[in-house]
Specification:
Elements: H1 3-29, E1 45-51, H2 57-62, E2 84-91, E3 97-100, E4 112-115, H3 120-155
Antiparallel strand pairs: 1-2, 3-4
Helix pairs in contact: 1-3
Length: 156
């Protein structure tokens, strides 16, 4: 893989971590949401990552730098071979928390309200993980840019 390919892989990981951070923020914002458009309480969301595969025959060669002059996979909406793809954002199947609050408008006949099963501590740890992974990939991009600059200086 060439240096520009390294930047594309890190860029795909940064995009995936940004999506993860947005999903965690949505989970935290909806921790007390008892009614959604579907009628029930909000369900915690999870992001599913997968290794990106080459979308076509030429993309398989691009990942090994045998065809260096092919257009960038990002320009055609393809995955970056060796990068990260967000395959899905799924709802957590865990049961909801039931709290006794007979005055709440969403209380059932017994006076219990179904709340999302979202732990703010878990969400903060997940957000910190996404932030750190994003920062590490940003550092990898900066290091790659430094290597490219140094290579150009050597070639002068």
């Amino acid at each position: 893989m060439n240096l520009f390919g390294v930047m594309e892989v890190s860029g795909s990981a940064m995009k995936a971590e940004r999506i993860r951070a947005e999903v965690v923020a949505a989970n935290m914002a909806n921790a007390e949401t008892t009614r959604t458009a579907d009628g029930g309480p909000y369900r915690r969301q999870h992001v599913i990552f997968a290794a990106a595969q080459a979308d076509n025959f030429a993309g398989q060669f691009r990942s090994h730098s045998l065809i260096p002059m092919l257009p960038s996979p990002r320009s055609s909406g393809q995955s970056v071979p060796g990068g990260v793809d967000v395959t899905a954002v799924v709802s957590d199947p865990a049961a909801t928390q039931r709290r006794f609050d007979p005055q709440h408008p969403d209380a059932d006949k017994d006076g219990y309200v179904a709340y999302p099963d979202i732990n703010p501590l878990t969400e903060m740890v997940d957000l910190m993980g996404a932030t750190r992974a994003y920062g590490l990939n940003s550092s990898a991009v900066q290091a790659t840019k430094g290597m490219i600059t140094a290579s150009l200086e050597i070639l002068k």
